[in-house]
Amino acid sequence: MRPARNWGVLLGAAFLMATSAVGPGFLTQTTVFTQSLGASFGFVILTSILMDIGVQLNIWRVIAVSELRAPDIANRVLPGLGGFISLLILLGGLAFSIGNVGGAGLGLQVLTGLPVTLCAVLAAALALAIFLVREAGPLMDRFAQFMGLVMILVIIYVAFTTQPPVAEAALRTLVPTTINYQAIITLVGGTVGGYITFSGGHRLLDAGVKGTAALPEVSRSAVMGVSVASLIRVFLFLATLGVVSRGLALDASNPTASVFELAAGTVGYKLFGVVMFAAAITSIIGSAYTSISFLKSMLPSVATHENRWIIGFIVLSTLLFVTIGKPVSLLLWAGALNGFILPITLGTLLVAAYRRNIIGSYRHPLWLTLFGVLVVGIMTWMSGSVLVDQVASLWK
Known about the structure:
Helix content: over 70%
Number of helices: 17
Order of helices and strands: HHHHHHHHHHHHHHHHH
Largest sheet: none
Strand content: under 5%
């Protein structure tokens, strides 16, 4: 491909990954943790960024050099493992998609005043309209870039209006007064967990950016994706810190909306609607695209009619949201599931990185392997702790 076109694809994959990560849960997590940890949350963000980059570089590079999607790689590591991982991704992706449909409806309601259910249906219709186009990939790339840029500009504006204590935030990012390990794991899982990990890597593969020669481009795109998501998180952190440092109380029922409204009044509340809508609708698209990409290996007909399957996924998510209402428990379950998915998928691809029948003559960097093993260990421990707590709660 021509370099100019390559750059567009790399940027598109980066923004697809970033906007898939930045959903309603991402916004709420950032606000709540800033409220509880204050300026020291900067350290959590910095640590999670480093871990996110390590995860994405490991996974995207192995996908690129193997020229295979994640389930195909997993099946070569252990027959049947690809199907198991695909099932986990589909369940988690569907659960998050339902929540994202609701988030898009909430954002649109703030902007229009229409009922949430109607707004959710309208937002889902816009998302699936992209996949009615025969060549949906480039349109999806451009849409993700546009909505990502909108979120960045709006959140930067709100951050400046709150006048956060930047010097203190910078100091506590390097020298925190408290370290919350649960917050670090939550941010890593929310940024590169579940389907999000593979959204950009699979997009590059579909666009033909693959092979050992493409590794510099793949690595660049992976870092860009994490950087975009992290930029949004950093400025939302600063915006929230500016509000909290003035002693203003956030509304526990919708803390992120509270930050925007306290920062800029009615205009701020409307800007929250813009950010929530942009975050949720891009996450709907990313979830549907990536989840269905896991079915291509299992069902040959999916590759032939991919857009129809993606549209069906979005329609199903919307119907479930309209039927069951706000899926709070479902989102909590999906978040816990993501904690299990990341160590399984990352661990599998780390094994694949040393299988010659998968990656050929490619030599995976040792530092990336060690970094990946560290993340697998930490996420496995934390996921196990969550499972033990959940099982224990059943007996109470």
